[in-house]
Amino acid sequence: LTIHDVVVVGAGTGGISTAASLLARRPGLDIVVVDPRDKHYYQPGWTLVGGGVFERAMTERPMASVIPKGVRWLHAAVAAFEPQRNEVVLEDGERLRYRTLVVAPGLELNWDGVEGLRESLGRNGVTSNYLFDMAPYTWQLTQSLRGGTALFTQPPMPIKCAGAPQKAMYLSCDHWRRTGRLKDIDVAFHNAGGVLLGVADYVPALMEYVKLYGIDLRFNSRLVAVDGDKQIARFANSGPDGTSETIERPFDMLHVCPPQRAPGFVRSSPLANEAGWVEVSPETLQHVRFGNIFSLGDAMSAPNAKTAAAIRKQAPTVAVNLLAVLDGEAPRAVYDGYGSCPLTVERGKIVLAEFGYGGKLLPTFPTWLIEGRKPTRLAWLLKEKALPAIYWELLLKGREWLAGPTLLPHRPQAQQSPEALSEKG
Ligand code: FAD
């Protein structure tokens, strides 16, 4: 077996930006990226597809076009990890051996976690911005609904882009308000969690819009079943005293954010923590048991907001630390938990949430330019006009935009081969 310097599992946001960042730092590195898909998606664009602002074609590119020059793309799926042998096993039984490994397969949308949901999608008013194919249907439904009930749901955390379920709702409400139909539409937000957003600083601005649109907020209310033909959704509601009851609600439109979890081959692997995520140090993103393995993006265990914005800071952190390990040194780049969620509260305005571990606010821009806790036009322009280009041209190409990693002082370590680090596992 050839031994590659770096094997990267997944060519999504995390995998591509890390491969590019590694090559920018060390041209000529032998990197293999493994991903079975033909297409790469700019998922943050799907909210704007569902809101009628973007065409979905803007969010999709051929995979081959985003693979950095000099990186080998293996068009295959990984089935298992064998960290003690420094190998991954592909679905066809082939193996790849590595000196260091980057795990970035994203997360799994668990459509079967809600009874009847998979069969209902795309018909009878049931939609989700979480799918490339389905986001245009959200906009179609929004445009055609003239009255009745529109339900928006949010599953238990963690999910990718925790604000996305309510972003879809605000953009639909804004359209109904502008077209004079909102008074004839009952809108409710069924949230399995107990708060509108995990970081309290942004809640007041969001509550202004909840009031403006007349949204009925239902907390601790989890979607458990959908009957598409009858257009009925079933929710499990839990009370503060531990009681729970099931209710049924008819709908004309239902926007679902599905329950989410780590991919099956990660959950069942020696890399997973109890909850199934790749278990890394939240600071260095190095695996806690296998020192030559790093993970970033939606698949890993750190308690940051699972967003592409987070990867902007995670990729350089992983690149610096992985190269250190290849050189027999200790990791010294530190990730602060940065993540961001541009909340599209109306067409033309965004509440730009940016925060790190512990809910610490980490604004990129000075507050005189963009005050993240207020809805601003500039944040909308950033999302609509600038972020897609930043994604394709800077993030995926390893050109680090305001995101140089924080470095600790150099910490020499007894010379150790990366392979030897996996044996502590
Ligand atoms: P992904 O980009 O999902 O890539 C995972 C890759 O791994 C895929 O290409 C997949 O094919 C591959 N893979 C899976 N299984 C295997 C396997 N067995 N073997 C090999 N490869 C495999 N983020 C923001 O920053 N701002 C936003 O406004 C925002 N809005 C969003 C709105 C929606 C509707 C959605 C769905 C997401 C949004 N996000 C947003 C989140 C963002 O898109 C993700 O956090 C980010 O793409 C995660 O990157 P990743 O590399 O971990 O996973």
UniProtKB/TrEMBL annotation:
Protein name: Sulfide:quinone oxidoreductase
First-to-last residue of the parent protein present: 162 to 586 of 594
UniProt domain FAD/NAD(P)-binding: residue ranges: 4-119
Cofactor: FAD
Keywords for this protein: FAD, Flavoprotein, Oxidoreductase, Quinone, Transit peptide
Organism: Tistlia consotensis USBA 355
Residue numbers spanned by region Disordered: 408-425
The keyword Flavoprotein is annotated on this UniProt entry: yes
GO molecular function, a single term: FAD binding
Taxonomic superkingdom: Bacteria
Example GO biological process: sulfide oxidation, using sulfide:quinone oxidoreductase
